[in-house]
Amino acid sequence: MSELIPQPSCADPEDKNRLSIDAARQRIASLITPLTAWQRCPLRDALDRILHDDIISPINVPAHNNSAMDGYAIRSSDIANDSFNLKQVGIAFAGQPFEGTITTGECVRIMTGAVVPSECDTIVMQEQVSVDDNMITVHGKHPKGNHVRYIGEDVKTGDIALSAGRRIVPADLGLLASLGIAEINVTRRLRVAFFSTGDELKSIGETLATGQIYDSNRYTLYGMLKRLDVDVLDMGVVPDQKDLLRQTILQASQQADVIITSGGVSVGDADYVKEILAELGQVDFWRIAMRPGRPLAFGQIDNALFFGLPGNPVSVMVTFYQFVTPALRKLMGETEPDVITFQVTCTDAIRKRPGRFEYQRAILFKDDDGITKVKITGGQGSGILRSMSAANCFILLDEKCDGSPANSLVTVQPFSGLI
Ligand code: AMP
Ligand code: MG
After folding, report:
1. Which of 79, 268, 287, 343 matches a 20 to 30 Å C-alpha distance to 201?
2. Cβ(264) to ligand 1 under 6 A?
């Protein structure tokens, strides 16, 4: 019997030479050069794509001073104390400006969005006016400029309306439309191949024999990749067989920018995965001081980046969010968004031993007094996928933390924005 070479595992009592999460992220980032290829894309198709060039505004938005209210456009020089009378000399509708001129003691009826006549500088809401034929009486105080939306107050001609590296969100589509822009340049879509490894894995639709399980990682990976708007290449389940693994990895490296595998990098099955990866490219096996989620293999096979994620279903997701997501974003030219975290009271006691950074799955909720708090999802085993499904945030516990009693402040990272 061949001797097993110890490999990093989630079950290791302690890691020597382990990498911190930040150090691992930095190492990955240092090996990634953003893709430069781009394509022209019709506006609606640009949702979720990464902007390749700054968008310089060709126009002022709004293009004219216009009214923010239904009411009357007046001259501030006519404003008098308490109440004063003005003669209405016309009407301005949105899209149909008032064409005449306005002199002292005159005003025009104006609708929201209509151009403010050049002689006027202030809008009075219709609720503050009493009308008698074509004479109005204005009540109350009206600071100069009230309810006027100024030319260029949203975007000025020549302003950078959106910066390169931005992921296009629905508001951006509207902003670009408001500038009259029909097409933009976006970075080309990444192509990501992924597969699961393990003799025990069956695909849905197949019958399970004793000891076999359905492959769930390919589904979580599919979902996480789709959220990043990449093209996915699902290469199925590959049994723990050297030739099949080699063949699949080679094929993936020829067809994709990135290869992601799950399983097969922990104790027991790593020997030949390591051997194949060493033969095909440069891939390192990393021990990372985190839980769940160790170990991680990262490197390059031909021109493709390779991520070997752990097999446990929660570990796959946590390592994906912490390492693969920032790496793919950098590769596709996206400016890295800030990771939003905040502190909130946890109603549960938290168990943890010092040594590793932990991502516990948790639920942000409102208590009976309407105060936002957090509770853990229950069992935190790395195989309990329901904990990810039930959770809406991670509780972040640093290496030094050795647990905390109920009702302590903890740091959370909401899933919103992460997934
Ligand atoms: P491994 O990293 O291959 O040793 O797998 C660790 C644990 O995760 C084992 O219990 C595997 O059965 C499980 N596992 C591995 N791959 C998958 C998968 N694709 N879907 C669900 N569970 C998996
Ligand atoms: Mg396995």
Report:
1. 287
2. yes
